[in-house]
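Re: your question about Aldehyde dehydrogenase family protein

S., sorry for the slow reply, the queue was backed up all week. Below is exactly what I fed in.
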Amino acid sequence: MNDTSPDELAGIIGTAAEAAPILAATAPRERAAALVAAADALDAAVDRLVPIAMRETGLAEARLRGESKRTSVQLRLFAEVVADGAFLDVRIDDADPDFVLGPRPELRRVLAPVGPVLNFAASNFPFAFSVAGGDTAAALAAGSPVVVKAHEGHPELSRRTGDIVADALTTAGLPVGTLSVIFGREVGVTALRDPRIAAAAFTGSTRGGIALAAIASSRPNPIPFFGELGSVNPVFVTPAAADAGLDALSEAFVASVSGSAGQLCTKSGFLFVPRGADVPVAESAGSIGEHRMLYAGIAEGFRTRREEILGTNGVESLVDGEVREEDDGDVWVRPTFARTDVATLRRERERVLDEAFGPLSIVVDYDDPAELPALVAEFFPGNLTGTIQTAPDEDPAGYAALAAAIAAHSGRVIVDGWPTGVAVTPAMTHGGPFPATVGGGGTSVGTAAVSRFLRPVTYQDAPQAILPPALRDDNPWGVPQKRSPAGESSTWGSLSSARGQGVGA
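Result:
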């Protein structure tokens, strides 16, 4: 796929900028209907798109069909969010001459779309984190046009998906320029610097995300940049769980590490176990067939990290795995498992702790479960997830401190599950402290993702005729409005006082 030319790029961004005020003024239910139309179009095209995705990425048909369904479900979920209207967070404070701090003007606040969003698509989810994926869906739901920088790992799929979704959106009544796709790494950087781009989203490597975030923040007009970067997603096995036997847990661990050749941001990169615990991964790993990696850059990065980890003093191989390159450049892998201990992790942290993006994980022996909360802070300051594996009927009080430590350094705390498999649902958080994410945190999965592409605007003493529909008294969009009536301030604090006396408990 040829890179987008400078003239083409200027025209695409210009069209997106022209579409922005039209899209922002579109009634929520009309925008929701367009998202459903896009989902319908993707579902109808799945038999044409999946073979292209298989050829370009090497991912299995079943995985890709499931991911395509997840993508259309995301669009439908955000349609529900838009139609409901609560995401606009409308607040109306009536004028109050008797306000406790002096006369209060009438104030009306709403969340407005930021404007054109640049979305850097990911390589490892060619549907769900690509052209029509979660960041695109969230930005469209917010009312912002999207320019997608396609990933070079699946260019044909990106073009086809973009054509299908853009056509569905405009046919449903949204303006031309609501969704566009551009190609080329340097083209993406040029787009990020364009003053008409109002925000950007990224899913990919830590190094790439940090570099792009620096560009976004150093522009003459800096913009929000939301990057989901690297994560190693540590898993901690309690002594009681180890005593109960780790056969089933080891099998699930291998599946979590090897699925999609480990090319998942939620792969379990470390498994902490009591020293000497039997972790029988060899048999399960031996039954895993080889899997093609997404593209040459990821394969080379995995090969380098694997060699570095296995060559570290104090790290032993449990399962060697395999990295095999074919004449055409495709790289095929089998899972690798290593083992070390906390002392080695501390001594060799520069070689061992960084993410190995592929089917590799490290079992780490610990001596005292009381030290685990401190190890989270020491080794894993920012991750997407942290997991605790427990024994049946184990007292939660025994791992409450560990859960609190994980919560302080991760976006999702998992008990007796695995981080791979991110539910597309309102309560999901797919993000975490740096370096898991950059640009203010938030989530790239779940309905809260829409907030990244909104900004607050307050109107003071404005006549009804100039107010946005969501703020008007006749409320033509029918969105929830939270109103603070005059005189309310004189009662502030009374509810908390009443509760303190046992009232309303």
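The radius of gyration is 25 Å. The longest helix spans residues 28-57.

Happy to talk it through on Thursday.
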